[in-house]
């Protein structure tokens, strides 16, 4: 279906590294520049792939690295199609991008968490009505004490619901047979402040730190010691408050875009993603409808006249492919093949 380049970004996450520790200290913009340099060098080393249709993709926070548009001046006719990612027009056959459960703008992402929690039945009508009355639509920066208190209540209820759900997911049959090992692993990972600790990540930790895995991936010796999924201690600075403006130019210039959301995601509710897409004021080409897999509804989708498609993935959390991999694979395959979902 595709040749995929997986990139650990920002630098010093995963197996990526910097020779100078100061190289790990990056921002949204600097991280995007690093991705730009990596891709330019990769295509220089692998020119046989230049004629292939090229797409950029990512989930959650990686939208910051693949946000869009902007021009620069230079000796060649080159354009930055993905937020400071430099592509020569006549070199890379760029076709579009796909992003899932995208962290885009707190004014949208965070502001719809209350509505999302109410829609899922996590908070009561009384709590929701108190939030509407005291916060007056602003659930990001509480303007008064009553708003702050009700938002604290919402967060506590959401956390209890999340914790209960994760506990159900954690204890697979194997984990129940090895409770001491599994609980010890979870405790050892708590310093990372990961939002999710599941059995999948338990296995991933050992697989990624296996000598055979490192050899297969050709990880340079002496660069990265222990692989951990989350590195919250990285000195990363967020200096791009919103990536919404960077979706406008490429989509209006004819590049394709697929934006998808797990419909059970409370971190970035699909309501918020729909809202910022609507704020772009694109006309509708194919209105809201269900899309199917194996005779079952797999989600809902809507397509806009400028080749932007939005889709939900039924039962998907943050991020959708972690929960509904088969559905996400079918969705991506159809979209890359230019077929209706």
UniProtKB/TrEMBL annotation:
What PROSITE patterns has UniProt attached to this entry?
A: CARBOXYPEPT_SER_HIS
Q: Which InterPro entries match?
A: AB_hydrolase_fold, Peptidase_S10, Ser_caboxypep_his_AS
Question: What are the GO MF terms of this UniProt record?
Answer: acyltransferase activity, transferring groups other than amino-acyl groups; serine-type carboxypeptidase activity
Q: Which UniProt keywords apply?
A: Glycoprotein, Signal, Zymogen
According to its UniProt entry, the protein's GO biological process terms are:
proteolysis; secondary metabolic process
Keyword Signal attributed = yes
Q: Supply the Gene3D superfamilies for this chain.
A: 3.40.50.12670, alpha/beta hydrolase
Return the similarity comment. Belongs to the peptidase S10 family.
What name does the UniProt record give this protein?
A: Uncharacterized protein
Q: What is the lineage of its organism?
A: Eukaryota, Viridiplantae, Streptophyta, Embryophyta, Tracheophyta
């Amino acid at each position: 279906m595709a040749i995929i380049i997986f990139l650990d970004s920002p630098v010093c996450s995963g197996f990526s590294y910097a020779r100078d520790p100061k190289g790990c200290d990056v921002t949204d913009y600097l991280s995007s520049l690093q991705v730009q340099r990596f891709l330019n060098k990769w295509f220089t080393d692998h020119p046989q792939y230049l004629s292939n249709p090229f797409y950029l993709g990512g989930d959650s926070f990686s939208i910051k690295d693949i946000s869009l548009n902007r021009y620069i001046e230079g000796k060649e006719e080159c354009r930055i199609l993905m937020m400071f990612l430099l592509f020569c027009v006549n070199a890379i056959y760029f076709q579009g991008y796909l992003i899932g459960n995208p962290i885009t703008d707190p004014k949208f992402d965070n502001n719809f968490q209350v509505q999302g929690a109410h829609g899922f039945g996590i908070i009561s009508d009384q709590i929701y009505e108190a939030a509407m009355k005291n916060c007056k639509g602003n659930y990001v920066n509480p303007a008064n004490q009553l708003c702050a208190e009700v938002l604290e209540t919402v967060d506590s209820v959401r956390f209890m619901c999340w914790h209960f759900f994760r506990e159900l997911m954690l204890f697979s049959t194997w984990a129940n047979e090895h409770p001491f090992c599994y609980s010890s692993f979870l405790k050892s990972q708590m310093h990372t402040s990961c939002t999710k600790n599941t059995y999948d990540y338990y296995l991933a930790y050992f697989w990624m730190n296996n000598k055979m895995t490192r050899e297969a991936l050709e990880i340079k010796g002496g660069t990265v010691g222990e692989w951990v999924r989350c590195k919250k201690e990285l000195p990363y600075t967020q200096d791009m408050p919103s990536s919404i403006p960077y979706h406008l130019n490429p989509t209006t210039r004819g590049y394709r875009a697929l934006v998808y959301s797990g419909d059970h995601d409370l971190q970035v509710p699909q309501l918020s993603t729909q809202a910022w897409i609507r704020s772009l004021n694109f006309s509708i080409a194919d209105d809201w409808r269900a899309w199917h897999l194996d005779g079952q509804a797999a989600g809902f989708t809507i397509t806009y006249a400028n080749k932007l498609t939005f889709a939900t993935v039924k039962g998907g959390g943050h991020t959708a492919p972690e929960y509904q991999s088969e559905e996400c694979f079918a969705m991506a395959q159809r979209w890359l093949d230019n077929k209706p979902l």
